[in-house]
Fold these 3 entries.
Entry 1:
Amino acid sequence: MSEDPWLQNYDATCRLVQEIAENIHERNRLQRTRESPAKMNMTLRASLQKLKQNINQLRESLLRVSSSRRIMQSEADRRQNLVDDLVTRDKQLNATFKGDVTQPEPLRSTLMAGTGAGGEGGAAANPWLVNEPEETRGLGFSAIKQQQQHIIEVQDAGLDALAAVISRQKLMGQDIGNELDEQNEIIDDLTHLVDKTDDQIRNETRRVKLVETKSASCGMLVVIVLLLIAIVVVAVWPT
């Protein structure tokens, strides 16, 4: 799995913090030896500006991934703590650069102890972290990245399982849709058959009524003929 871009940017920002702290240390050394620190001051101003931009980019990137829920909430909180720590360190470096505070300058060995996961000091604890979550406290960048990769792998597995469930539900929906189409065709055929049968019943009913009418007319005609015959017979019969 490829390395998380956010963590890569965070590592680069931590290295920039270390570089700025070292340059401030060197600038102060030049001032003590009465050498001109003008060039170093210009470099520090550019680096501090770059640090502010990096922190803003980390904050915006974290907001995007947390809003889209591409990382767990606990990981989003942990990263927010890391960003807050960088903001605090940025303020401290600016204050030290401007000479607004008096504090012991960090030793070079301490600064180098916090190199990123790709450096030799990847197993050392991050010197800039304050109020870090309990589950990552004391871990180096490599361990934190491995932990994050494990979380992402778990999330990917969960998404794969969810995708499989959705796929099965889609197939079930398609089967149900096909079954409904077949049932609708059967209902349409039954409706057509019922309509046809109804028409046949109405036609047969009309025929029966017509036959009954004709039968009644014939019966009456027979009676009349018989009466006429009787009258004629009586009339001609000798008395």
Entry 2:
Amino acid sequence: MINTATVSLNNGVNMPWVGLGVYKAESGEPTKNAVLQALKDGYRSIDTASFYDNEESVGEAIRESGVPREEIFLTTKVWNDEQGFEQTMEAFERSRQKLGVDVIDLYLIHWPVPGKYKETWGAMEKLYNEGKVKAIGVSNFTEEHLENLMKEAKITPAVNQVEYHPKNAQKGLREFCETHGIQMEAWRPLGRGDLLEDETIQQIADRHGKTTAQILIRWCLETKVVTIPKSITPERITANAQVFDFSLTAEDIQAIDGMNEDLRYGYHPDDFPYDK
């Protein structure tokens, strides 16, 4: 069983530090089995999105797992072509029905669609005020997007989920989020696999008797960033959760911090092809 450590979001809701991401996990058995394995291993946070087209499989796994619904922190996201006030309300209902749940724990705006995300946020606030979601947040927002949103928002986002790993440490964004009480969350914390082979990470892993993936996940936690490593391999799902029985040294963290290149494997939010 993993440590069930949680962080308290800005509205008092507790979110697990480590969860399972299911991006690119095929709907049906691959997603369902991955979620079942994660819940068996003690994970209590699952992250999906309408765009992933596997919400139904996530919901099936949750129901079949035997883990009480109230123990699971479930995140999903509204996609770009679903944004706008009414569209977001409808998208939420579609996601809720596919997941087969009454309440979603965390609902995120997937990308800051220009000219749309403020209107979308209005719908998120309504869903929150109606008790249909426990927390609302954003994904892939820069400091500028957050500042623009918060000028008019009645509710400050609880979470900002972004690409975060040693080669894209986003220190400025991390400090901005900390200042404003927004919990940062990492997607693609393991890079595209290349970070798992990195010499610096490997040396630290050898010193701690851990895998390179465990070092990368632990670095997220040491820098106060929630993380959702994705895998459909049972052994990796199990191993990725075993990060609460050791700590990185100050020297370890300094060495990993020194790897930053502002390198993104995904799109910069300003360069995303929103018109496609």
Entry 3:
Amino acid sequence: MRTWDVRTGRLQDSFRAGDEVASLAFGSDGRTLAAGTARAVQLWDLASGQLRLTLPSRSPTTVAFSPDGRLVAIGTGGSVELWNVDLPDPAHAIRTVCEAVNRTLTPPEQSRYLHDQPAETGCPQAVR
């Protein structure tokens, strides 16, 4: 998939879905793109260009988000699959992890679990 700036005609970004894309839908947050391929629906973070989640599905032909963005409906010919995709933003998820372990992450943990996030988005120094 490629995104273009229609004013300039320049390529802004591209995503590799791995299969032919049959359907697309934008999430209500404006940050998430759902791409239906032959075997799955992939949710992409448009700001980072990172794949956020893959929903396995049998030959999805249609993809749509609920108005609040918490559900994805996938049409597969004779049926509809509903998926809860209420994904927290990365900063919220990081805070939740830090609170759960009640400490900051070590550099190896930061590298392993937050590899796509800048170091400053890690845990705050004082976790309560």
